[in-house]
From TrEMBL:
Keyword Metal-binding recorded: yes
Family: Belongs to the mandelate racemase/muconate lactonizing enzyme family.
Keyword Lyase: no
GO molecular function, one term: magnesium ion binding
InterPro entries found in the cross-reference section: Enolase-like_C_sf, Enolase-like_N, Enolase_C-like, Mandel_Rmase/mucon_lact_enz_CS, Mandelate_racemase_C, Mandelate_racemase_N_dom, Muconate_cycloisomerase_anti
Residue ranges constituting the Mandelate racemase/muconate lactonizing enzyme C-terminal domain according to the UniProt record: 140-238
Pfam families attached to this UniProt entry: MR_MLE_C (PF13378), MR_MLE_N (PF02746)
A Gene Ontology BP annotation from the UniProt entry: amino acid catabolic process
Designated name of the protein: Enolase
Classification via CDD domains: MLE_like
Cofactor(s) annotated in UniProt: Mg(2+)
């Protein structure tokens, strides 16, 4: 089966509640819908969320590189010749979201062709994941109210709290208020998006020691090499590398150098193919993983849960699968629902999604 066409459609959907964190803020989902067409009539879809503050990509760069570089290279390529497709894609450096969307759209096609879900093709470990919800910067009152609403509405009891502000006390107060409000049954962990220095982060971890946090993510830049190593060595919970380890090689270096002791896997930046490489490396090195969220919409979240549920190691912890709840609308004909704090995989061929063409027409930016 051969690739006959590739569409890269920019669209914009506003958030009802913007997400603010140490490296940026997101008010509108300005993503790119990627569709790959084949000579057998099957069409694969995936979403590319540009994150300039993390990877340097923009909506225009994603559409540009797909239309000008990747589409001409991939037209006529065999859908199942994944290694050959990747060799073509990785002639170009960077552009992780654009490459990943193409990779995942091809897996969607492969699943449809075999009559199997992508989760089954990747490993079929389970059919759902527990959900972790991400809480952005705000006052203790607003963050705790948001957490209670999310818990009461969706049954979610795992929360990732964005930290990394100055003065550090702003975030310490939020974490403490959350523990007091949610009680001991809630799981809490923190993500600093490189906002603090290593010594500020060390101070924060000492202050929060009694709260029973389960993970600490990117509290300071990995480029602060010695400070970061010292922080990671002294951290009593797994220290997660997210944006500092975005390729299989960076993951290996990061773990061997003592920059991190756990890895965030994001399908938005490593697709399914490279996410498996990252996962298998981590398993070989005896390192825990967490399924992260690139502030994904529903299509991106379908991809994260499809991958996460496919393997035991990626479905052990709750996955970050709920940022789409803060969007005012989405593109799927059948919206995702989180019930009892879990999100189920779609047991249908491929990714099992259909795009609502009316909504796409309303939100697309290229006409
Ligand atoms: C996260 O885990 O950091 C914010 C920035 C980014 O690259 O991803 C999000 C969530
Ligand atoms: Mg992170």
């Amino acid at each position: 089966m051969k690739i006959t066409g590739i569409e890269a459609i920019p669209y914009a959907i506003p958030y009802t509640k913007p997400l603010r964190f140490a490296s940026g803020e997101v008010h509108t989902a300005e993503h790119v819908l990627v569709r790959v067409h084949t000579d057998e009539g099957l069409v694969g879809v995936a979403d590319a969320p540009p994150r300039p503050f993390t990877y340097g990509e923009t909506q225009a760069s994603v559409t540009g590189v797909i239309e000008k570089v990747f589409a001409p290279q991939l037209l006529g390529a065999e859908v199942f010749a994944r290694e050959r497709v990747h060799a073509l894609l990785y002639r170009t450096v960077g552009n992780p979201a654009a490459k990943s969307a193409l990779d995942m759209a091809l897996w969607d096609i492969a699943g449809q062709a075999c009559g199997r879900s992508v989760t089954q093709l990747l490993g079929g470990s389970t059919d759902r994941m527990r959900v972790s919800h991400m809480l952005g910067f705000d006052t203790p009152q607003c963050v705790t109210a948001e957490a209670e609403r999310i818990r009461d509405t969706h049954g979610i009891t795992v929360f990732k709290v964005k930290v990394g502000r100055r003065p550090v006390r702003l975030d310490l107060d939020v974490c403490r208020a959350l523990r007091e409000t949610l009680g001991d049954d809630a799981e809490l962990y923190v993500d600093g998006n490189r906002g603090w220095t290593a010594s500020e982060a060390a101070f924060a971890l000492r202050e929060l020691d009694d709260l029973g946090l389960t993970l600490a993510e990117e509290l300071c830049p990995a480029d602060d090499v010695l400070g970061r190593r010292r922080l990671v060595r002294d951290c009593r919970v797994p220290f997660v590398a997210d944006e500092s380890a975005t390729t299989p090689a960076e993951v290996t270096r990061s773990l061997l150098d003592g920059d991190a002791t756990a890895i965030s896997i994001k399908t938005a930046r490593t697709g399914f193919t490279r996410s498996q490489r990252v996962l298998f490396q981590c398993e070989g090195l005896g390192t825990e993983v967490v399924m992260g969220n690139q502030i994904d919409g529903q299509l991106g979240t379908v991809c994260t849960v499809a991958f996460g549920a496919a393997h035991a190691a990626t479905s052990r912890r709750a996955g970050e699968l709920s940022n789409f709840l803060d969007m005012s609308d989405d593109l799927l004909t059948e919206p995702l629902t989180i019930t009892g704090g879990t999100l189920a995989v779609r047991d249908r061929p491929g990714l099992g999604v259909a795009i609502d063409e009316d909504k796409l027409a309303r939100y697309r930016q290229d006409h």
